[in-house]
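task queued by scheduler; priority normal; single chain, no ligands, no partner chains; default sampling; output format set to structure tokens
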Amino acid sequence: MIWTYRALNNPAARRKWLIFVLLIIAAGFGFTAYKIATGAELGKSLIVAAFFAFFVSLYAIITLGKPRHYYIEGDYVYYKPFKTNLKKIKGFEVDEEKKVIRLKGAGIFSVRTLYFDNHDDLRQAVRRLERIVEK
């Protein structure tokens, strides 16, 4: 089973990426404030901060719109570059409102959250996971 999602269309993924981008922009402006407080030139520092915020915002737009692909093959779920053995997870939790499946017991370098654009793909993945995890 293969499915695609865009972070822009999934509320949980969109929130995660927006928080990440806002933290990067806040860190950039915090660094700029520190430079200004230590005596750097005000105009030059603000121009550099504006360019930084602009490019991070462009990165956010590209990231939110980029299609991401998951697929389940055999007993593994793949999301580039991660893969998770579904026989080793302890279960999963489905949130249909946010269109998310959270895999319980997945390792640190494995897929832990599955995001979806539509409810049909979510239901198909739940049926597939129930068959694999219950074996």
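post-processing summary
- The CA atoms of residues 69 and 92 lie 20 Å apart.
- The chain has two domains: 7-65, 67-133.
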